[in-house]
From TrEMBL:
Single GO MF annotation: FMN binding
Residue span, FMN hydroxy acid dehydrogenase domain: 18-375
Keywords: Flavoprotein, FMN, Oxidoreductase
Broadest EC class assigned to this enzyme: oxidoreductase
UniProt protein name: (S)-2-hydroxy-acid oxidase
Organism this protein belongs to: Kribbella flavida (strain DSM 17836 / JCM 10339 / NBRC 14399)
Binding-site list for glyoxylate: Y147, R182, H273, R276
Amino acid sequence: MGDGGGLATAPDPAAVGRGAAQACCLDDYERFAADVLPTPVRDFVAGGSGTETTLRDNRAALDSVHLTPRVMAGVEAADPSTRLVNTAAAMPVAVAPMAYQRLLHPDGELMLARAAASAGIPYVISTLSSYPLEEIAGAAPTWFQLYWLRDRAVVESLAERAAAAGCSALMVTVDVPVMGRRLRDVRNAFALPADVVAANLATKVHQAHTAVPGLSAVAAHTASAFSPTVSWADLEWLGARSDLPLVVKGILDPRDARRAVEVGATGIVVSNHGGRQLDGAVPSVDALPAVVDAVGNSAQLLLDSGIRSGTDVLRALALGASGVLVGRPLLWALSLGACDQALDLLRTEVSDAMMLAGCADVAAAARLDTRRACG
């Protein structure tokens, strides 16, 4: 893929094949992806901000949630199907918005979106996708994720393009006034290769492709393109100009959740951006119960950050979420050309977890009791 942080050489097909064939859980894809990806790309995907405290704590917090299964429920087969926002979903999962997926595989977003379509779940297109949103929307049921840009006309244009392309929801990410300082990228002087671009933006920002020692070129790109002053008034302005359901991503405080509902949000994603923004922020799963209490049935809640298994999906449902967003594990699978396999595996895990907990459907999962581990 040329200079910068991209793939300097094609991955070894044997290593790709071994990884795809041997994966037994979502975490396995990360381990096998390490054999096919260069270190800067691995670090770009895996890394968090600062000392990566929140990145680690997301997993620890999820692991501390213990479920109390029900028995003798008379369930022959669990049905994990549901609706997320306004979209039918074969399981309570959507593919999280993730930038520059051509870093992982030449087919990038197109491959992962097609896998989502095959799995029967929504795919969220990133503003910073490396294929145009219109091409991706043609491959799968999609939502569009919007970063607030300095040029409001471009914001409005992206929302209009998303609607015209058939996206069924607009997800606005609100936790990136500036990009968190991601030290792995700084140490690697991470930059995008020339053939991986922000395909939805008419003006390609050259900073993203220029490696500078001690700096992240992607962070420089973000600083030049994103507006740090996005406000609730901006969301109201957008809601008045788009007929798509509005989903607000990046909420942790229940006061912000209530405000999001007031400005018209149909959905809220409880998220700390996978530990990539404020280091030391509360783990998303720890923030979820208070947001559930604050919002009630006023908006649908999704949990993001750290989801790695069907058990994690069940934990989210039991704590009051309607579903989850899954991110990094699917990028690792993408690097191996194994997106379909990874989503099939996740569906199996979700169904198995529901059966073991005595849950015939997602409504039963929402009634499970939970306990937090001591210590």
